[in-house]
Design goal:
The chain has 382 residues and is α/β, with parallel strands linked by helices. It contains 15 helices and 13 strands. The protein folds into 2 domains: 2-176 and 361-377, Glycogen Phosphorylase B (Rossmann fold), CATH 3.40.50; 188-357, Glycogen Phosphorylase B (Rossmann fold), CATH 3.40.50.2000. The chain is 44% helix and 16% strand. Strand 6, helix 6 and strand 7 (171-173) form a beta-alpha-beta unit.
Length: 382
Amino acid sequence: MIVNRLMGIRRGGGEYFDYYIARELQKMGNEVKFIIGKKGKSDVDLGLPDFGTVYISTPYLRDYYYWWEEKRFRPLRIIGSAILDLDLYLFEKRVFDYLKTSDRFEFDLVQLCGLPRLGSWIEEKLQVPTSIIWHGEPSKRGIRWGKQCSFHVGIGAAYPRVRDYIDSNTLQLEPGIDTDVFVRRQKTRIRDLLNLNQDSVVFIFVGRLIPVKNLPFMLEGFYEVLKENSKVHLLIVGDGPGRKSLMQFVKEKGMNKNVTFTGNIEREKVVDYYSAADVFIITSKYESFSLVVLEAMSCSLPLIVSSSGWLPRLIKDGENGKVIDPDDICNLKEAILFMANNKSWRDEVGKRNRNFAFQYSWGKSAFKLISFYREILKIEKK
């Protein structure tokens, strides 16, 4: 059983990780089911028809958390953290109540996307082993709850802290990539659809529009670049609570002709947007691993990434992209201008990144995960 709070509401790296891993586990003959969240009593925003899925209805408060998180006054950020905790608690409580009363609950293991508090409840009250998939570094409370859970999997930059503070036997795991799906396609189709100049150097960001992605910084960098080079264009693919303020900034700075917000794009169509771009850019304040970076590399793009989390482990400055300080506008400006002015270098690095992506696969990651579970649960392969 896989439990994921946001799978039915707004998907990011953790949600796609769970989905692709579950799909591979099914192919191997394992029974996999999901419990996922939905907003209140509304219809499901994002269904999951490929699995036996239970939808848990609770108030969705996370966007309020994002709003408070941006405030500079620390007491206001504390309010935001309390709102996030309430959002998680309400979901965890409903999931636990469902499991406690369900006569269909016959699983060897419950795998949780984060949610160590829920894991501790399941271990103590239901006597069922849990595995926490850590996509971010655990908080002090997360460490305390996590120690009550049986197994731990650390993704990217989360792994060292989980291993050192919770469980020395933590499994280190990386996401995969389907290189047959994420492969560069025709460049012009999406550019025509969005009325982008075919001669522009197009930079693309793909992800949720939330504070940790540091998008105001990215836009400020582009504003400075446009003073020197008007033939660059930024494509922002995704949605989130920050969209309104970001669009307002673009309007105020007169950047409308050089920045395009696409909103959410269906998963199978995102590859067309990667293919329309010349450079991928991500300026996050923290990234445990970043699945979209692998997708962009598989689509033969050079990258500009921030020096946060696991990103410098994937991108080596000057070799397969540019690594910038997520607080240094001049550093970002220089990287964008370098990419815009060096087509032959972009093409060479794009080919190198495509080859790099082949070392990752969802099948390999799923096999490593299920082997870990079989060993610790003493389950022989049927």
